[in-house]
Specification:
Elements: E1 2-6, E2 9-15, H1 20-30, E3 36-53, E4 58-80, E5 83-93, E6 99-119, E7 125-128, E8 135-138
Antiparallel strand pairs: 1-2, 2-6, 3-4, 3-6, 4-5, 5-6, 7-8
């Protein structure tokens, strides 16, 4: 990963073989980033994406392999138990111009991935929702 910082914005380049979520977490740990949002584009050779089913409170996961263009990558950075947490969604286009997308568990860059991350001044936490078990944003002063 290579990056430079312009004020509160990071311009990031991931290269072939790097894992997107893993690299973003490492950057946030290194620079103590506890909140922000990011978007990106590029290409991946492998990805694991999911779809949340509210009727079962579970994700269905699929692994994709092959050349895919990142049509859209968007997510945020928050903190869970004092550690950076990445919540990202991705849309991937194949060589037939079909697009598949969902919650990004992880993806491996095949050529390059260009990400712009805007860092917030203050951290934002997540708290486990008692009903779904999902980690939801804690936006109230008391952490709810």
């Amino acid at each position: 990963m290579k990056y430079f910082v312009l004020g509160s914005t990071y311009v990031i380049r991931l290269d072939a073989g790097e894992k997107i979520v893993e690299a973003m977490i490492a950057l946030c740990e290194r620079d103590a980033i506890g909140a922000g949002f990011f978007h990106g584009l590029g290409a991946v050779g492998e990805a694991e994406i999911g779809h949340y089913d509210p009727s079962t409170d579970e994700y269905d996961w699929v692994r994709l392999s092959g050349p895919y263009e990142i049509v859209s990558l968007y997510g945020n950075v928050t903190v869970v138990d004092g550690q950076p947490f990445i919540h990202a969604h991705i849309a991937l286009g194949d060589n037939t111009f079909a697009v598949r997308g969902g919650h990004l568990k992880e993806a491996v860059v095949s050529v390059t991935c260009e990400v712009t991350l805007t860092r917030f001044r203050d951290d934002i936490a997540r708290k486990k929702d008692g009903t779904t078990g999902l980690l939801k944003l804690s936006l109230e002063p008391d952490g709810d």
